Amino acid sequence: MDPDEFRRAGYAVVDWIADYWTMLGKRPVTSQDPPGTVAAALPASPPEHGEPVEAVLADLDTLITPRLTHWQHPGFFGYFPANTSGPSVLGDLVSSGLGVQGMLWATGPACTELETVMLDWLAGIMDLPQRFRSTGPGGGVIQDSASSATLVATLGALHRASGGRWRAVGIDRRYRAYTSTQGHSSIEKAARIAGLGEDGVRPIEVDPETLAMRPAALRAAIEADRAAGDVPAIVVATIGTTSTTAVDPLPEIGAICAEYGVWLHVDAAYAGAAAVCPELRWSHAGLEHADSYCFDPHKWLLTGFDCDAFWVADRGELIEALTVMPEFLRNAATESGAVIDYRDWQVPLGRRFRALKLWFVLRWYGVEGLRAHIRTGVALADRFARRVAADDRFDLAAPHPFSLVCFRLRAGDEASAALLARVNGTGRVHLTHTRVGGRYTLRLAVGSPLTAEEHVDEAWELLASAASDVLAG
Amino acid sequence: MDPDEFRRAGYAVVDWIADYWTMLGKRPVTSQDPPGTVAAALPASPPEHGEPVEAVLADLDTLITPRLTHWQHPGFFGYFPANTSGPSVLGDLVSSGLGVQGMLWATGPACTELETVMLDWLAGIMDLPQRFRSTGPGGGVIQDSASSATLVATLGALHRASGGRWRAVGIDRRYRAYTSTQGHSSIEKAARIAGLGEDGVRPIEVDPETLAMRPAALRAAIEADRAAGDVPAIVVATIGTTSTTAVDPLPEIGAICAEYGVWLHVDAAYAGAAAVCPELRWSHAGLEHADSYCFDPHKWLLTGFDCDAFWVADRGELIEALTVMPEFLRNAATESGAVIDYRDWQVPLGRRFRALKLWFVLRWYGVEGLRAHIRTGVALADRFARRVAADDRFDLAAPHPFSLVCFRLRAGDEASAALLARVNGTGRVHLTHTRVGGRYTLRLAVGSPLTAEEHVDEAWELLASAASDVLAG
């Protein structure tokens, strides 16, 4: 494809996306087609001779788009948001066009340096502790996801807890990881990948009201493990748990980690974005105790997946844990010690130029634009929660400090599950569920920049009406 | 950014990329600016108020692009290629615009099914063993990189070698991984991440001529470890090693793995693409013994990073190793057992719709277009190697079955290193180095679709001329 063919086809794809976004609100949010529909409609092998882009776009319209869950839809309220925006798409497009590999500083100097500066910019507008800024011994990097951030933090923690032995001998003791019963499944997965096993993860009980970790229970678990000869390696605390956006008490947890010399990683995958707003920074109190911290601009900060922003207080420790230096990667810049090679901060070797999409987003929206986006989400969630609270068939299941509302029918689990199925079946909205205190609970998470009051109101009306049907049946 | 703003700005970015590709050959391949140049030129914080896209594109031209290593440049011959193409960029642009999360089938049915079909398409045109097709117990998935593929294979191998214990208890024995001394650094990194430690990786000696693994040495290492009570878990064989594109003897290695019940992973990150050409499939002989296999369409198959194609012979085993099921991800489709949830095939939870770029590439080029691209690379490398062989100041350091040529000056390491520095200093080409048999060796890897005979000839002329200077000095 020569540059002029690319230009023509590129305009067509840009138009396709603009049209998709324009009409998105009129589509069903999810597909009702059974498994195998797409696969059955595709040929068994690729064409022998090339085809024009128009043919692929036509199939995109008929085969693919109707069988998607539309995450950017204004009626998508499932999971946590994973939103993108025009400037993010454009920054990523530039990245695709440049096709630069940022594994080493030398393989893309501007790719590395823009990333360092973008993470400093984010740390600045979120007022993160100085220890995470690149001007000191810390610094930030883009990971693909909070799952990978947790894994990388776990590896740094093992390196530290072993006194450096782990690099050579691996797991030769029972290292332990701690998180609340509300911690994300990626914490168990990271521990499993790192060779700690499921037994290596100690679930710490939470306060039944706030659903936040109980520091006393954490201390007791660490003490018990130490008494058994096990090695406490890492505590993963959460700002904004996945089920209900609970906030663990970092000041107390941080003090315990400091006392026992345990690495503290703070997972703020979804709720971290809230820290761009001064009035929501209470959620980050105590973060100065953390050895590492991450949040996902690709969740609630208008930057397309994948973009997890991960910071460490001591980058040297992380690099020591992860670096491997084969001859074919040796280069003068690395040996000078004056540069960052981000391959040593992550699992993979290769890496895209992901800082570009952050740069485009931060400059297009400006700080005030990002704050407006967060505040809109919080206000819409609050608007929805007030409807729920005013209807005595419903209960709010947990506090809603951010843009997630957890609620259920007082009639019980079966009714709540039936309500979810019924409202999702309309195709107008998509919500997901969790369990809170063992009870089936619906979650409505606001995040799409397309979501406005009318969509939240429609969601409520659909729920209220479906509740009548469910409770009548 | 509303759809019409996106349309206007999108055209501008498409034009920017088309112009970049048009003028790319006239740029220096690398930047000569010292570390910190980009960071120093950027402001300390993002703007308070938003800025137009034009302002960002202007800074892209003045600040960023001049300080890149241009991986798509026709004179880029470093490392292995990491090339993209117009259709790949467009497929990825659609993915960015859709902003779909493919973690579960339910969160993007077409995202999952297109991926399964694309991996079957690739398996078909490469004539991969039937065991890797999704129609049987195996199947394929897109990983970000071969590093992650090796890690995931290692986890599957640990699950198997432990008889299922590993999920619960982690690393409680000395599991061992085997690869040749020419194996990629990501194998050591995967073993370290998985908790085996550097000691857990056994480097197996190679034939000094072919640089391929010696099966007898592999057998001896496995026997020695078993005798010591260690548990051989995985052998990573390579088709196309990073230093010299050596090909390990899979039939013999496969037989040994079968005898001892060890997982065989085959890493064909770069050279796997060659299997689209029937005349290069000799390199894949014996692959039917492998438990897993990967190659990178993002290296030599015109698909932008990240796109590693990874197959397993038994998907159930891999899923068992990696799955974690929290309440908030439960859904009817998963519970039906009729769908694939690709989150269970990889480290992260979230995932982009990366199958789109493969779909665009496979359809735009067709099978014959992909074969033509591979054959061009092989022919250009051979053309270059003939120049080297005809100049008695130079030696070829290894066979060149694919598109990589390894060579050095007979005058020794210092002269070869000086030659590399001098020729890269011209800014017209970029080569990297390795060591072969302990000796400093230059590598010229062809891969860019922009690279033609004139560029390879220019590279040779620059090298021949620089050699005269080096040898005279």
Automatic annotation (TrEMBL), chains A, B:
It comes from Micromonospora palomenae. Residues 32-51 are annotated as: Disordered. GO terms for biological process: amino acid metabolic process; carboxylic acid metabolic process. The modification N6-(pyridoxal phosphate)lysine is found at residue 299. The keyword Lyase applies. This is Aromatic-L-amino-acid decarboxylase. GO terms for cellular component: cytoplasm. One of its GO terms (molecular function) is pyridoxal phosphate binding. Its cofactor is pyridoxal 5'-phosphate. Belongs to the group II decarboxylase family. It comes from the Bacteria.
